[in-house]
Design brief:
The complex is a heterodimer of chains A (311) and B (354).
Chain A: H1 8-18, H2 25-41, H3 44-61, H4 63-66, H5 100-136, H6 138-152, H7 156-167, H8 171-197, H9 201-208, H10 213-249, H11 261-268, H12 277-304, H13 306-310
Chain B: H1 9-12, H2 17-46, H3 51-56, H4 62-71, H5 78-90, H6 104-139, H7 144-158, H8 161-175, H9 187-190, H10 200-206, H11 210-247, H12 250-257, H13 262-300, H14 305-314, H15 318-346, H16 348-352
Classes of the chains: A mainly alpha (311), B mainly alpha (354).
Chain lengths: 311, 354
């Protein structure tokens, strides 16, 4: 938007967004987002991360168009097994003569599904527990935070393992298990934020107007906690992907023939020495995607977290 | 750890600070351990596997089934079952493993040293490389080396460790033959000494079996470096941030004005102050290596806790899984509390407040 041939209309939009005196709440909000975007745009690694994540979403959406072969049914088992990478099979084929590139392309859907669902389950739970504990204080706080601490007392993968062991392997159960182990840090963060907000004057004003605690928490405390929790969730997404891949690698996540990246590495492990590409390619996919989420989260934190900016 | 109100808070003001702190600590530990037991118990309850059938087998007569059902206490209310479970667990009785037919505690005791050795080697590598990298990045803030350390760290956060392990085996073992394959020790050395501590490096060194010692060391090199890389990424990042904080303090300016050599300011003055929070960071990443070791051990056929856990999982040996989970949880909590205590002991400012 800063290129010389910017149209007058765009200049107008830009001025509207950057206005020092927004005329409406909507303008202020859009202006805030635009300013954040301008700051974020200067962060090269952050932009790279955003690009990777967008690419992941696009690949997942258009998997049917991008993938040259079917991800589940392979070619001729006599002639097309374990072929090395070539122009016909960009990443080679696996032991069932399936095109690895196509499987990785379809696997992006599984990865995106896991990340989206875990975030959609764990974020609200963490927010709710944290804001409730922080707002009410007293024994509510003690009980909720004790429960949170107990969940934090297990390393994440171990607890997820135990849950999947109990619920049975499968992608849905893996998602539930990861979500169960993901919410406690968000709850702690939301509680800490709530403690700083709860005694603010505008909250007192709302309380004096007779708003119920539910309304105050839902309408006035939670929105203020949201941005820091979202940064935290974005930073966690790489961890979520790695945990899901780890569960898949141990055979507890998505079940064959679903093209899940971690399970694909496990399947390629048997041929590692003679047919290196079978296990290597899905690992590169996991690595690139979680690197993308890490870059994005890091960039977002630099822009949105005032504490990080000081350094 | 959040503060929790202690029952006797009214009278507590008469007690010295450390007693109050100790009391809180005891309550925290007790509540957390209770929670660990409760969580593992509840996980054990939702298993779709019939616990009776896993004891008596498919072809048991109804009367045997009934007998075992009563023996396991499954007819009693849930809270009573939990009480029985907790009572047994506290005395170290987790039942018998379906897989090895041995008491689970015995299995865990045999697997634990292998994990301990691996994680300790990992944390040593991570600390020895991570702290200098972090200090260097802080001193050259914003420059090329800072960026490199940051990217190197992010790469460490992003790569799946089991995949890195496989790639390591592919390159260093299969292609170049620099390191030995999976396992803790070659079979030819396995019976050349008597295992006493279970820490093979220690055992072989104490008995003067230097050939075996070197063999163990070479087996340890690759998996420990991988875990070390993981913790290094975190330690370097935190060191950088603590050092930036310290280098901006006024005592650094004072030291400079007095003409103290720059290396001395960095490595003696600033690092000593940054060391206190760093201890916490190192203890925490040590605990997290337990997690990383589950996947690493699977890749390297390392007979530790992680492998025991995954083996039991794949054989639906639920008691063993829960016992292992509980043990890891306890070690994890222990390390957390240990780092808390160490922080108190090391920082005179915190200590004086007691």
């Amino acid at each position: 938007m800063t290129s010389p041939d910017t149209t007058l209309e765009k200049q107008g939009l830009r001025n509207w967004l950057l206005s020092e005196q927004p005329a409406s709440r909507r303008q202020a909000r859009f202006g805030q987002v635009y300013r954040t975007w301008l700051a974020f745009r200067g962060n090269r690694l952050g932009m790279l991360g955003l690009g990777i994540v967008l690419a992941l979403v696009l690949v997942a959406l258009f998997a049917g168009v991008i993938a040259p072969y079917d991800p589940l049914t392979g070619g001729d088992l006599r002639t097309e097994r374990l072929l090395p990478p070539s122009w016909e099979h960009l990443m080679g084929t696996d032991d069932l003569a399936r095109d690895i590139f196509s499987r990785i392309v379809y696997g992006s859907r599984v990865t995106l599904l896991v990340v989206a669902l875990v975030a959609a389950i764990a974020t609200p739970v963490g927010l709710l527990v944290g804001t409730t504990a922080g707002y009410f204080g007293g024994w509510v706080d003690t009980v909720l935070m004790r429960v949170t601490d107990i969940f934090l007392a297990f390393p994440r993968l171990i607890l997820a393992l135990a849950f999947v062991a109990a619920l049975g392997p499968g992608i849905e159960n893996a998602i539930i298990a990861i979500a169960i182990t993901s919410w406690p840090p968000y709850a702690r963060l939301a509680r800490a934020e709530t403690l700083t907000i709860r005694n603010a004057e505008h909250i007192d004003a709302i309380r004096l107007q007779g708003a119920s605690p539910v309304r105050i928490i839902w309408g006035h405390v939670m929105p203020l906690c949201l941005s820091s929790v979202i940064i935290r969730v974005t930073l966690d997404m790489a961890g979520i992907i790695l945990t899901a891949a780890g569960l898949g690698f141990l055979g507890l996540g998505a079940q064959p023939p679903q093209p899940e990246w971690g399970a694909m590495i496990a399947a390629g492990r048997r041929f590692l020495i003679d047919y290196w590409w079978v296990a290597t390619m899905p690992g590169i996919a996991i690595f690139v995607v979680s690197l993308g989420f890490n870059f994005l989260g890091d960039g977002l934190r630099d822009v949105l977290d005032p504490k990080a900016q000081q350094q | 750890m959040t503060d929790i109100p202690v029952q006797s808070e009214g009278r507590a003001s008469a007690l010295p600070g450390w007693a109050l702190k100790l009391g809180k600590l005891v309550v925290t530990v007790a509540v957390t351990l209770f929670g660990l037991l409760l969580v593992t118990f509840l996980i054990g309850r939702v298993v779709p596997v019939d616990p009776v059938l896993s004891v008596v087998g498919d072809r048991a007569s109804p009367s045997t089934y009934e007998k075992v059902y009563l023996e396991l206490g499954l007819d009693r209310p849930l809270y009573e079952q939990f009480y029985l479970y907790a009572k047994k667990a506290v005395t170290g009785d987790f039942g018998e493993s379906l897989l090895t037919k041995k008491p689970i505690l015995q299995d865990l005791a045999r697997a634990f040293p292998a994990t301990l050795e691996l994680a300790t080697a990992g944390i040593l590598i991570g600390t020895l490389l991570g702290i200098p990298a972090g200090v260097w990045a802080a001193v050259r803030q914003g420059r090329l080396i800072d960026q490199l350390v940051r990217i190197f760290g992010l790469v460490g956060y992003s790569a799946p460790i089991f995949w890195l392990g496989l790639m390591g085996l592919l390159l260093f073992y299969a292609k170049w033959g620099i390191v030995p394959g999976p396992g803790r020790i070659d079979i030819s050395y396995e019976y050349s000494f008597t295992p006493t501590t279970g820490l093979l490096l220690l055992d072989t060194a104490m008995q003067g079996q230097w050939g075996a010692f070197r063999n163990v060391l070479s087996h340890l090199a690759l998996p420990a470096s991988l875990l070390g890389y993981l913790s290094m990424a975190y330690i370097a990042r935190m060191t950088r941030s603590f050092m930036l904080n310290e280098l901006a303090q006024e005592y650094v300016v004072t030291a400079r004005v007095k003409g103290v050599a720059e290396w001395r300011i960095i490595w003696v003055h600033a690092l000593r102050n940054a060391a206190v929070p760093l201890v916490t960071v190192i203890a925490l990443s040590y605990a997290h290596l337990l997690e990383g070791s589950v996947l690493t051990e699977t890749v390297f056929a390392w007979p530790g806790l992680g492998q025991y856990l995954t083996n039991s999982l794949q054989n639906a040996d639920m008691n063993a899984v829960l016992g292992g989970t509980l043990l890891i949880g306890i070690v994890f909590v222990g390390l957390n509390i240990f780092s808390d205590l160490l922080y108190t002991l090391l920082d005179p400012r915190v200590r004086r407040r007691l």
